[in-house]
Amino acid sequence: MIKYFFILFIFFTLSCENDSSLEKNSQKKVKTEALLTTSDIESIKFKDYLLDQNAKVLASEWKSYQTLNQEVEHIKQLNFSFFKKEDDVFNATFKEFQTNIPEKLNSQPIKARSLVLETHMFRLKDELGFKKKLYKSDLKYIKEILVALSNLNLQINKKLEKEAQIIIKPY
Fold it and tell me: What is the pTM of this model?
């Protein structure tokens, strides 16, 4: 019986030492994870669509679009002050963004793209709420926002291009 207790005692002491070494390894891993830099954001590969001249004129009337476009530029510089504002201000910006779409741009595809952009902005806000700093592993959240804004720009350009076409229908 004493042999069993002795063997169990040795087994438990050895297993406790293994747990502490695992904790040390995981702490080293957390410390070695690199912080996000502006060069990381610049190295993101995606198709960045810009607004054409006609779209810029219409988008200049859409103040909340201008605000969000500026905030995306701030994100590229790792300035996340917009996301740290009061929740009421943040939510009001997106409510205004959805409701004040200019009449010429007010269509389902543009509303859908703006909703996607809003969703990704909220995801990044939530991620910043959990963490104080973003790491390279969080680059996907920023890429999603950049792609969503680019797709919104593309959709605006497509809508205006389609309206500019004169299609003669045969009778």
Answer: 0.77
Measured between its terminal Cα atoms, the distance across the chain in Å is: 102
Provide the token pair at 66.
């201008």
Model pLDDT, residue 116:
96
The residue among 36, 79, 58, 40 whose CA lies nearest residue 152 is: 58
SS3 37: coil
Segments in the chain below pLDDT 50 = none
Q: From the CA atom positions of the chain, what is the Rg in Å?
A: 25
How far apart CA 121 and CA 125 sit, in angstroms, is: 6
Identify any residues that bridge with 35 across adjacent strands, giving them in sequence order: 135
**Amino acid, single-letter form, for residue 34:** A
Model confidence pLDDT, tens digit, residues 99-114: 999 999 999 999 999 9
CA gap 17, 19 in Å, rounded:
5
In this structure, the number of other CB atoms found within 10 A of the CB of residue 144 comes to 18
User: Both tokens of residue 23?
Assistant: 């904790």
